[in-house]
User: Fold this.
Amino acid sequence: NTAVAPDTEAQAVAPEHTRTGMSKASLKQAYIDNLFYIQGRFREVATPHDLYMAAAFTVRDRMLDRWVKSAQVYKTSHSRTLCYLSAEYLLGPHLANNLVNLGIAEVAKRAGEELDLDFNAILEEEEEPGLGNGGLGRLAACYMDSLATVQIPAIGYGIRYEFGIFDQIIQDGWQVERSDTWLRNGNPWEIPRPKISFPVMYGGHTEHYRDHAERPRVRWVPDMVISGVAFDTPVLGYGVDNVNLLRLWKAEAPESFDFQVFNVGDYYGAVHAKIEAETISKVLYPNDDPEAGKELRLKQQYFFVSCSIQDMIRLHLNTVGPLETFHEKFVAQLNDTHPAIAVAELMRLLMDDHEMPWDTAWAITRATFCYTNHTLLPEALETWSVGLFERLLPRHLEIIYEINRRFLDEVRMRYLGDEERVARMSLIDEAGGRRIRMAHLAVVGARAVNGVAALHSELIKTTLLKDFYEMAPERFHNVTNGVTPRRFIVVSNPRLAGLITEMCGNDRWIRDLECLRDLETHADDPGLQARWREVKTAAKSDLAVWLKQHAGVVLDPQTMMFDIQAKRLHEYKRQHLNVLHIIRVYQRLKQNPNLGMTPRAFIFGGKAAPGYYMAKLMIKLINSVAEVINNDPQVNGYIRVAFMPDFNVKNGQRLYPAADLSEQISLAGKEASGTGNMKFSMNGALTVGTLDGANIEIREEVGAENFFLFGMTAEEVRRKQTEGYRPWDYYHGDHELKSDIDLITSGLFSHGDTSLFRPLTDHLINNDPFMVLADYRAYLDCQDRISEVYDRPAEWDRMSILNVARMGKFSSDRSIREYAERIWSIEPKPIGV
Ligand code: NBG
Assistant:
């Protein structure tokens, strides 16, 4: 069931006479039926939303067929199952992706045409579930796609936030946040499971007692109980019949709880309890890095972890049997430390509810969990105050103390007399208010730990978790991130996908991205280069139309290089370095209006955490520079600046295909991996980048000659930091740099206001924690080289083709296979039909 073209295979699954047939005729019939029987509409009165819903249900029915079969096979074959525990899933729109994975994108389009439907308008109608912040949440979504595609039985567990990541609008150049009401019109992709529901407890105290056999036992008496209800979304693999489960939990007040209060006559108290319970899954925290100490966030984490572990135990008891084999049935991957409390929760359930002794419970727990670290930034490493834990999760605090006591004894035994090491490794940070180090809990409770790119995994071993690495080096791994080529090439860039398929002679590359290598031999072919360029220009035109409508900026897709930086706004990602380059080009043009330069459109996209002042100021700066440049007739034939509002998955899909140049300019050692870097290269953009995160591996793959490298290495950064970095010296030592920064403070971009951007420029000159000034000159020189190459189209196109041809490694299918083989020990389980 592997090498069959998806269209044919899909037809084999559902014969024509069934209600989920895949032919054009059955699709048309099903669509009309769904419009009528589900939406209660006929064509003449249907709204665009009705038309979308009917399409979504038509596609969903065809997935459910396969889902039921997958569930049956997984159950009867007792398949080992991967549970991905993640507080975020940045899924993006489902419809187009599911059509592609079902293999019916083409036939559905034709069916739509015959029904006189505007296919693109229907796709546009979908509101995307933005249940994540950025890279980490999107990675979880790519991994769900790949798990199904490489046929690994898997359940993704998470939270069904009622409000996902905020919508960003730009007002007067500033970011303004609007709440994301994605569920407002209903979500056709999910199936509520009111009967799959678990109690989740908070607060109260613990009681230690002896049971009938005189064994010491613990009972947790909470002061609040809520319930978590499952909502399931099917996730279909590409070109296979495997459908996995994404199970998201919604918080509700348990009925019985309501009743109790109601019975004693406290109606308002009951209502209040209900509201408080439902608050828990209300909204996603919009920060890349956790805000310290937010109680509701800890409640959310524990909420979805507790429901998920209880669900796993239920599944195990229903299918396999005794919990002693729990770790043989399940592996649980912790996506960062957000679900790390799972270590204590599994211990609690095994011991308190299922009467297991500590050692057995601990052996099972340690064998179940694996932990992925996604950042080295100190401000992003989660810790929770012991006081908060004591109030919210008193039983878990006891368990964590006991885990710590036993663990530190081991450390002491191993490193006699090294009490400093003991303090460094403790799960409790004793310095300045006692705090629980969630990363340490995850490491101690997991059998494998991994970073997300080669450099990052090395830095974990030599800095962040050095002591742990020394103690158990065999538990440390690297799995470099990947992205799904289904969404990020086939769905978002159909023209490129078509050209690649034609050049390769088949579409195998979609499930085996290494096949793109076939393009290499054509890299110098002027015929391919011309078509390659046409595809790129067409994507640029689409983006230009969109940006004109949504950002009010006019860009010329024919003459301008599209230079794009799209990612969260963060100082370490250095959007301000990009801005300094724009200002330099602007000044050059002003000094010499006849400078024949390569025209460029500088395009930005990204959200700032609502409380991150400096990041918001960077957005304002970009928009302010844009306003001046775009309205200056002396330069605007050469350069323009655009800020795309509301960068999300849907809008990302407009950006990646249209980029000539991808900006990956973080300070070396700070970006754990990056995944946007992969999405851009896969779509033929060349990268200007530092030796950071996965950039290093991208450069290795595509060849140094096809990558624009600049800046310090992580090692050089470290050295400069220890020697004492003085941005002031750079500012005074480079008159162009000084004049670019001074132009910002002059008020030119702020209608004469010389104080507006002062916080940003002062910070650069005096502190510059991410060494923008140190890399400025190298960045500018590199950008000049880039402009020169862009003026030699044959050379540029060749490089672009080679970039795509050599991106095989960065498919998330490869990442998942590595996890499955090296970390999880899970075999693919094909669904034969
Ligand atoms: C982010 C990193 C990125 C990385 C993604 C996915 C967090 C905490 N980390 O570099 O900053 O690509 O994770 O691994 O969001």
User: Anything to note?
Assistant: Residues 258 and 271 are 8 Å apart (CA to CA). The chain is about 50% helix and 15% strand.
